[in-house]
Amino acid sequence: MLKATLLVTALVLGATGAVRADPLLDACQTVLLDRLLSPSSYKEIEVKRAVVEMSPGEWYAQEVSRVPYESADDVKREHTERTQREFERMMRDGIRPALTSLIIEFDASNAYGAIIRGRARCSHYETGTGIEPNPQTVGLYLLDR
C-alpha cells in the first residue's frame, strides 16, 4: 500500500532547528539549470514535494522496469543483479524505501528571450544506503503544462 505525504516547501529544519537547504532541491536545480538555454534567467516560482513510502517488493518492481528494453543483455543482467542485492538488503534490514518527488515550477527565457513558465519533476529513491541526492542520482523530466 502506497502512502503519500505532500509538502509545499523547499526548506528543511535541521536538528538544531536552523533552516538549511534541501539537498534534493539543490541536486534537481543543478540538473535543471544544465538543461536550460538561459540558466541565468531561471527563477523558482513554487516547489511541491511528495513522499511515497512503499514496500521493498513495490520498489523492486519499479526498479526492474526502469531498464530500457533496447539495453544490451549485459546491462540488463547487471542492473537486475544489483536490484536483487538491494532488495535482499532491504528485506534483511527491514527498510521501507521511499520515493521523494519534487514538482518545480519556474520561469526561464526561451531561445527568443521570452520568459516562459515551465515545470519539471525530479525524483530520488531513498533505500537506506545513506546516499544523499546528487545530480547523478536524481531523475529529472520536463513536464508539459
Instruction: Count the E strands.
Output: 7
Largest sheet: 5 strands, antiparallel
Report the structural category: alpha+beta
The proportion of residues in beta strands is 35-45%
Residue runs with pLDDT of under 50 for 5 or more positions: 1-18
Give the overall form: elongated
Q: Approximately how much helix is present in the residues? A: 25-40%
**Termini gap:** 29 Å
Number of domains: 2
User: What's the gyration radius in Å?
Assistant: 17 Å
Strand order of the largest sheet: 1-4-5-6-7
Determine the number of helices (DSSP H or I, runs of at least 4 residues).
3
Question: If you had to describe this structure to a student in words, what would you say it looks like?
Answer:
By secondary structure, the chain is of the alpha+beta class. It has two domains: 1-54 and 97-145; 56-95. It is built from three helices and seven strands; from the N terminus they run βββαβααβββ. The strands form two sheets. The chain has a five-stranded antiparallel beta sheet with strand order 1-4-5-6-7, with helices on one face. It has a two-stranded antiparallel sheet with strand order 2-3. Strand 5 (98-109) and strand 6 form a beta hairpin. The radius of gyration is 17 Å and the shape is elongated. The two termini are 29 Å apart. The model is unreliable at 1-18 (pLDDT under 50).
